[in-house]
């Protein structure tokens, strides 16, 4: 399996703030890789670095190497907070069309994410959609360009349990199509349910990598042990 | 140029201006009402260090002048190079010049009065109207806004409707209408007061609205509730607990609105509806400049306008700086731009 | 600040102006001891009989509120009274002036807005550029110079260098111009007044727009647009622009009184024949009906302006349309 992206000794620093890293990991084609850690551990920043938009955030700097074996256009991102992710003044239709794909492709992908086009139309505005619908819309927008890698940034943190389950189903379907997923979350069970490899992030450093089984059975780091202990029930897929 | 540097320059200028206005008696070279018709519309006198033969003198000097009537009915002044009049300690003020030359730093007006001295004396009126007007408006706006925000309910509603009404009034029209309502024969002091009142009447509404918003949010803070529980009286709560938190905003607003009041006064005065002769304000100094034929050949009558401009510029710079430092200090506060 | 989400909020707020402003003016003008007719009485060209007749017609010997009532009644019949200074019915004078004021205000507003939005965006995007520094200083200068002084300066410069007329709205030879030449003539006269009026608006709007744009830059969705590879200029001029303009439109209603006042000042000092310059003359002549009628016209302008700005806000912000509240 070829490597889509590998990261060596990545260090992310803010002007007045935390430094994340150094961290190293790689993401292989078609795999579901999870980055698990607490909020504020720098996960979103890593995502921004991987998509090359960190330069637009003032003062953030990157050291270390990111080797991409695919183009940036083949990497997609699903933001964490769906409510703030879209321009509030434009219809969702116009925003999805900005991505430059054909109407057919748009319709296909909207069906795939099961966005109920009977209830909402493309003429509606972001504030008229519920959180769950927005999340699905965002996933659709990430998929419409047929990416090779989908970075999902805490996609379930703003959803209730039922919607969470639906979104996870969606991700499994996406994975089944051969799209690699970088699943960023603080929710260990979800990561373990979806992904075949994981890395645990603690205070900006990767403290553990491996398959879910390895981590479940032989956790190396204190933090991982605490994470595991905090979860009442675990089912490893 | 760094922001801070500009701020200090502006503050220095304003400080100097205020001091000069206060001490105009000592600084102005001439009595502002002293007319000298033989030297009407005299250009600003140049200080020389080198004379026409190329010799250098340590003490600067001025050539006395001779008035000449030109064909187009204007006057110009030729320098008499034979005589040199040196600067010296003035009889009246700090600086003076040997007779028969005159030290007209900014020239004279059509009645031969020294413009520089008049600007200094005019500063007293214009600056004070600006500062007092802004203070009265902001103070009144603060009280109305604080009452409205603190008590809420129908009082809030009523006061805010009134404030909004006043905001909606187009300032100039009200200014003219109000001014016309007043008898033309008022003494200068009364006119002065009236102008302050009129300008404040127009300006307080905006302040009231913003203060009301701030007080509304401050009301819910613990220290206010604690004071209430302890049985403190309302005026005390307002003054001791709420007012300090609004200081930043109030300082910014005062600084930024002073130029508007100065403009309002000069607008009225230049039209003859404000401060009248023989009182001096920057506005009525500019009445000289309303005639193109005067300005064309004697552009120095425009200097009072420059004074207004520089003063307003400095107040704006100070206000902006205060606003910028305020926002960075208190991120939870709201400063409407 | 709490924000009201009523439809047409500004418009409703402005409506009372229509009645209260003239009333306020009416009351103010009656504070002057004696009335206008005293000076008329002293004018030998007008007979006492005429004066008495007018006094009776306008009920000037009765208490203020009664007079106001009569005036209102006439107003409802669209009779604004008669101007003694101009010897014409007030309405005729005002209508022609109204058009001129609207022209001046409209043109100034238009160019100031367009420039301010465009340059504000650019200045926000390139804060350390020469352009930003220059515009910053221009804005400071424009806010600090007294409007009337700038008018005078520009007029004198125009006189010295030629090229632009010295005030007024039409050249002396206007009537002999062809249609196209007439338009050009008015435009040439419009340059200085519109510049002075517009530069103040521009300065204020530019800083506001720049500040708003900077705030929008920090928003999440702008960053995500980058991830989706939307090109930079499109982000700036489509998304940032639309979002940043919202608060400006909200503020439009609040800017109107200042705009109207500013227009009046510019009219007075450049001789542009609009509602402002006639106000000054009316006040100087103590021409009661002209002053009152003028106030009514100005109030109408403000009310209509507020209505337009409310409509504009509805168009511009879909969140208000569905009642979900205004911009954050």
Structure description:
The complex is a heterotrimer of chains A (237), B (337) and C (328). Chain A is of the alpha/beta class and 237 residues long. Chain A has a domain at 3-81 and 147-220: Rossmann fold (3-Layer(aba) Sandwich). Chain A is built from 8 helices and 9 strands. Chain A is globular, with a radius of gyration of 18 Å. With 337 residues, chain B is of the alpha+beta class. In chain B, helix 1 (3-22) crosses helix 3 (115-151) and helix 3 runs antiparallel to helix 4 (153-168). Mean pLDDT of chain B is 80; it is low at 329-337. Chain C starts with 8 loop residues before the first helix and ends in a 7-residue tail after the last helix. Chain C has a domain at 91-243 and 260-282: MetI-like fold (Orthogonal Bundle). Residues 1-5 and 324-328 of chain C have low confidence and may be disordered. Chain C is built from 13 helices and 2 strands. Chain A binds chain C through residues 48, 51, 53, 56-57, 72-73, 76-77, 79, 81, 84-90, 98-99, 125, 127-128, 141, and chain C through 219-221, 223-230, 234, 239, 242-243, 246, 316-319, 322, 324.
Report strand % of chain C. Answer: under 5%
Number of strands of chain C: 2
Mean pLDDT of chain A: 79
Count every helix of chain C, treating DSSP H or I runs of 4 or more residues as helices: 13
Q: Can you tell me the CATH topology of one domain in chain A?
A: Rossmann fold
Level-2 CATH architecture of one domain in chain C: Orthogonal Bundle
Order of helices and strands of chain A: EEEHEEHHHEHEHEEHH
Estimated radius of gyration of chain C: 24 Å
- Main sheet specs of chain A: 6 strands, mixed
Fraction in helix of chain C: over 70%
The CATH class label of one domain in chain A is Alpha Beta
Average pLDDT metric of chain C: 80
The oligomeric state of the chains shown is heterotrimer
- The termini of chain A sit apart by 21 Å
| CATH level-1 class of one domain in chain C | Mainly Alpha
Gyration radius over CA of chain A: 18 Å
Summary?
The complex is a heterotrimer of chains A (237), B (337) and C (328). With 337 residues, chain B is an alpha+beta fold.
Itemize the secondary structure elements and their pairings.
The complex is a heterotrimer of chains A (237), B (337) and C (328).
Chain A: E1 3-13, E2 19-28, E3 32-37, H1 43-50, E4 61-68, E5 75-78, H2 92-97, H3 103-112, H4 131-143, E6 149-153, H5 161-176, E7 180-185, H6 188-194, E8 197-202, E9 205-210, H7 212-217, H8 222-230
Parallel strand pairs in A: 3-7, 3-8, 5-6, 6-7
Antiparallel strand pairs in A: 1-2, 1-4, 8-9
Chain B: H1 3-22, H2 24-27, E1 48-50, E2 56-62, E3 65-69, E4 75-79, E5 85-89, E6 95-97, H3 115-151, H4 153-168, H5 171-181, H6 188-219, H7 222-229, H8 234-270, H9 282-285, H10 292-297, H11 303-329
Antiparallel strand pairs in B: 1-2, 2-5, 3-4, 5-6
Helix pairs in contact in B: 1-3, 1-11, 3-4, 3-6, 3-8, 4-6, 5-6, 6-8, 7-8, 8-11
Chain C: H1 9-29, H2 36-41, H3 48-57, H4 64-76, E1 82-83, E2 88-89, H5 90-125, H6 130-144, H7 147-161, H8 179-217, H9 220-227, H10 232-270, H11 275-285, H12 288-316, H13 318-321
Antiparallel strand pairs in C: 1-2
Helix pairs in contact in C: 1-12, 5-8, 5-10, 5-12, 6-8, 7-8, 7-10, 8-10, 10-11, 10-12, 11-12
């Amino acid at each position: 399996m070829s490597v889509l992206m590998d990261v060596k000794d990545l260090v992310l620093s803010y002007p007045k703030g935390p430094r994340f890293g150094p961290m190293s990991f790689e993401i292989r084609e078609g795999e579901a890789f999870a980055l698990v850690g607490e909020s504020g551990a720098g996960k979103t920043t890593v995502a921004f670095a991987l998509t090359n938009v960190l330069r637009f955030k003032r003062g953030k700097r990157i050291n270390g190497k990111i080797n991409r074996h695919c183009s940036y256009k083949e990497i997609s991102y699903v933001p964490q907070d769906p409510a703030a992710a879209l321009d509030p003044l434009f219809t969702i239709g116009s925003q999805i069309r900005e991505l430059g794909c054909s109407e057919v492709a748009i319709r296909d992908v909207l069906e795939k994410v099961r966005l109920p086009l009977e209830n909402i139309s493309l003429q509606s505005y972001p504030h008229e959609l519920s959180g769950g619908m927005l999340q699905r819309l965002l996933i659709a927008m990430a998929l419409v360009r047929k990416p090779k890698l989908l970075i999902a940034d805490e996609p379930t943190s703003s959803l209730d349990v039922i919607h969470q389950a639906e979104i996870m189903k969606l991700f499994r379907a996406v994975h089944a199509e051969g799209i690699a997923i970088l699943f960023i979350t603080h929710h260990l069970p979800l990561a373990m349910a979806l992904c075949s490899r994981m890395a645990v992030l603690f205070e900006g450093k990767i403290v553990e990598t491996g398959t879910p089984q390895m981590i479940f059975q032989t956790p190396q780091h204190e933090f991982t042990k605490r994470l595991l202990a905090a979860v009442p029930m675990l089912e490893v897929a | 140029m760094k922001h801070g540097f500009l701020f200090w320059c502006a503050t220095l200028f304003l400080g100097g201006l205020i001091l000069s206005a206060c001490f105009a008696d000592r600084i102005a070279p001439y009595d502002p009402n002293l007319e000298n018709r033989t030297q009407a519309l005299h250009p600003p006198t140049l200080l020389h260090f080198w004379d026409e033969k190329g010799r250098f003198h340590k003490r600067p000097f001025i050539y006395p002048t001779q008035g000449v009537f030109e064909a187009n009915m204007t006057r110009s002044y030729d320098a008499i190079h034979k005589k040199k009049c040196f600067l010296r300690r003035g009889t009246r003020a700090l600086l003076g010049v040997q007779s028969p030359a005159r030290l007209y730093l900014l020239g004279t007006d059509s009645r031969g009065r020294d413009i520089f001295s008049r600007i200094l004396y005019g500063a007293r009126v214009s600056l004070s109207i600006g500062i007092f007007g802004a203070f009265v408006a902001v103070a009144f706006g603060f009280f109305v806004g604080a009452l409205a925000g603190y008590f809420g309910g129908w009082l809030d509603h009523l006061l805010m409707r009134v404030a909004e009404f006043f905001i909606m009034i187009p300032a100039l029209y009200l200014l003219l209408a109000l001014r016309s309502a007043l008898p033309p024969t008022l003494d200068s002091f009364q006119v002065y007061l009236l102008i302050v009142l009129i300008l404040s009447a127009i300006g307080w509404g905006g302040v009231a609205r913003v203060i009301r918003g701030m007080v509304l949010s401050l009301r819910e803070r613990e220290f206010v509730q604690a004071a209430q529980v302890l049985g403190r009286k309302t005026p005390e709560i307002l003054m001791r607990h709420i007012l300090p938190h609004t200081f930043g905003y109030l300082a910014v607003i005062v600084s930024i609105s002073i130029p508007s009041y100065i403009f309002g006064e000069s607008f009225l005065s230049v039209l003859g509806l404000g401060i009248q002769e023989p009182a001096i304000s920057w506005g009525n100094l500019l009445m000289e400049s309303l005639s193109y034929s005067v300005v064309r050949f004697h552009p120095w009558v425009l200097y009072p306008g420059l004074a207004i401009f520089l003063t307003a510029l400095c107040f704006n710079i100070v206000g902006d700086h205060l606003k910028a430092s305020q926002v960075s200090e208190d991120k939870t506060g709201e400063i409407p731009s | 600040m709490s924000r009201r989400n009523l439809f047409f909020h500004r418009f409703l707020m402005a409506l009372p102006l229509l009645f209260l402003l003239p009333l306020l003016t009416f009351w103010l003008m009656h504070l002057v001891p004696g009335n206008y007719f005293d000076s008329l009485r002293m004018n030998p060209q007008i007979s006492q009989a005429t004066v008495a007749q007018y006094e009776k017609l306008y009920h000037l010997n009765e208490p203020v509120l009664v007079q106001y009532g009569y005036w209102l009644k006439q107003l409802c019949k669209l009779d604004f009274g008669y101007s003694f200074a101009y010897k014409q019915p007030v309405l005729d004078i005002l209508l022609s002036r109204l058009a001129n004021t609207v022209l001046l205000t409209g043109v100034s507003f238009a160019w100031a807005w367009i420039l301010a939005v465009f340059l504000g965006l650019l200045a926000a995007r390139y804060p350390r550029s020469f352009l930003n520094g220059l515009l910053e200083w221009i804005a400071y200068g424009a806010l600090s110079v007294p409007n009337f002084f700038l008018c005078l300066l520009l007029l004198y410069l125009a006189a010295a260098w030629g090229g632009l007329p010295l005030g007024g709205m039409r050249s002396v030879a206007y009537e002999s111009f062809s249609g196209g030449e007439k338009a050009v003539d008015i435009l040439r006269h419009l340059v200085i007044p519109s510049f002075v009026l517009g530069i103040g608006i521009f300065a204020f709007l530019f800083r506001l727009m720049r500040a708003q744009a900077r705030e929008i830059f920090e928003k999440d969705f702008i960053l995500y647009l980058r991830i989706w590879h939307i090109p930079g200029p499109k982000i700036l001029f489509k998304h940032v622009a639309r979002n940043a303009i919202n608060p400006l439109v909200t503020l439009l209603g609040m800017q109107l009184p200042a705009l109207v006042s500013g227009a009046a000042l510019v009219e007075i000092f450049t001789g542009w024949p609009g509602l402002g310059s006639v106000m000054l003359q009316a006040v100087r002549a103590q021409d009661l009906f002209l002053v009152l009628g003028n106030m009514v016209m100005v109030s109408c302008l403000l009310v209509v302006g507020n209505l337009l700005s409310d409509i504009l806000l509805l168009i511009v912000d879909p969140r208000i349309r569905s009642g979900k509240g205004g911009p954050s």
